[in-house]
Design a protein that fits this description.
The structure holds 2 protein chains of 2 kinds. In chain A, about 35% of the residues lie in helices and about 15% in strands. Chain A is α/β, with parallel strands linked by helices. By secondary structure, chain B is an alpha+beta fold. Chain B has a 4-stranded antiparallel beta sheet with strand order 2-3-1-4. In chain B, strand 2 and strand 3 form a beta hairpin.
């Protein structure tokens, strides 16, 4: 086990236990800046943790970042670990980022689907869904990104428990989803919701369940364009951007459609590297460059959120 | 632990809506145990699918019979997984 977040190895993949240990190290090293919240327990009873980065105030406007809702997308949890360390390193050092954290809080959920993630290490590396049991079916799990109450059950998800995009019996049926929904509703002042997936190199905004454009489409498109340009400036990684339904396909019950409908204007989904060489099996050597370039895009969106209060 | 020896990931290029529909029908054939990494969407949008060893021949014959172009994106999934595990163990040690 790493003895500090400075000796922690960021360019390798880690188990659930190692990531949870990392969180405790980070909190212990930065007690004034970082705290660990438990927002619930997974279906199999694992704690669901969110790291809170705050420089004071009460219920400040906040930015939410989650990784790992689809457990096999290992590059996302690994990037989330790197983001957490980056935040503690840059606060007080980088002027633009310091301004963000002096005025807003950041909530980072690194392992959004702990049961699925543990299962990718123990039994099936390519497991995507939760590990909940569905009565009447021998198939396991729900696609947690089809389980949100936004176009739930519409075209763009499957009603078959055996499908990788099974939406579940009802909206928020998955405790991993309900925990986030309750947290967002209780907090009530989240201004940006950024959910990180892989792969395909895309930056997406609502909607996925309907073709209607979001009322803030022009602004979201502009922010996405700037964010993608910032990302690409580091290593030349090319991203496409646009709404989910026009850029990929119809997907119902997705998280950012729900958050946007709750009034969280800056709702985006990232699809990280790559475009189809390794897919979900992205080599660990690409963890740090992927996290570094993604961070530039996150900064762009966070700065825009700070500078455009609503 | 699930074994993926011989599993391949195919990248399928669909030229028109009819081909998208044809590949979508494959998705419903549960006995093939296909795992779509990138699902069928629209012409020009690549489809990536992991195919178990036992289904590879049937899937390739099916695609060729329908004139649907594909290439092998990952030759053997298990060998990549083995590399990943070795890398993790090496870094832990």
């Amino acid at each position: 086990r790493a003895r500090s977040t400075s000796t922690f190895n960021y360019d390798t993949y880690h188990t659930l236990e190692e990531i949870y240990d990392f969180m405790d190290l980070l909190v212990a090293e930065n007690p004034q800046l970082v705290s660990k919240l438990q927002i619930g327990n997974s279906y199999e009873g694992r704690p669901i943790y969110v790291l809170k980065f705050s420089t004071g105030g009460s219920n400040r406007p906040a930015i939410w970042i989650d990784t790992g809702i689809h457990s096999r997308e290992w590059i996302t949890q690994a990037s989330g670990v790197w983001f957490a360390k980056k935040i503690t390193e840059d606060y007080g050092q980088d002027a633009a980022f310091t301004a963000i954290l002096d005025n807003m809080d950041i909530f980072l959920e690194i392992v959004t689907n702990p049961d699925g993630f543990a299962y990718t290490h123990s039994k099936n590396r390519l497991w995507r869904k939760t590990r909940s049991l569905t009565s009447g079916s021998s198939c396991v799990g729900v696609d947690a990104n089809r389980n949100w109450d936004a176009g739930f059950g519409m075209s763009g998800a499957s009603s078959s428990p055996c499908s990788e995009t099974y939406h579940g019996k009802s909206a928020n049926s998955e405790v991993e989803v309900k925990s986030v929904v309750d947290f967002v509703n209780d907090h009530g002042n989240i201004k940006a919701f950024l959910s990180i997936h892989s792969y395909s190199q895309l930056l997406l905004y609502p909607y996925g369940y309907k073709t209607e454009s979001p009322s803030d489409k022009d602004e979201l498109d502009q922010v996405a364009k700037s964010a993608v340009a910032a990302l690409s400036s580091l290593y030349g990684t090319e991203y496409k951007y646009g709404s989910i339904i026009t850029t990929i396909y119809q997907a119902s019950g997705g998280s950012i459609d729900w958050t946007y409908n709750q009034g969280i204007k800056y709702s985006f989904t990232f699809e990280l590297r790559d475009t189809g060489r390794y897919g979900f099996l992205l080599p660990a050597s690409q963890i740090i460059p992927t996290a570094q370039e993604t961070w530039l895009a996150l900064l762009t969106i966070m700065e825009h959120t700070l500078n455009n209060p609503y | 632990k699930e074994d993926f020896v011989g599993h391949q990931v195919l990248r399928i290029s669909v030229a028109d809506e009819a081909q998208v529909q044809t590949v979508t029908e494959l998705e419903d054939l549960e006995h093939l145990q296909l795992d779509f990494w990138r699902g069928p969407a629209r012409p020009g949008f690549p489809i990536d699918v992991r195919v178990p060893f036992s289904s590879i021949q049937a899937v390739k014959v099916f695609l060729e019979a329908h004139g649907i172009r594909y290439r092998i994106m990952i030759e053997d999934v298990q060998s990549l997984l083995d590399e990943e595990q070795e890398q993790m163990l090496a870094s832990q040690s």
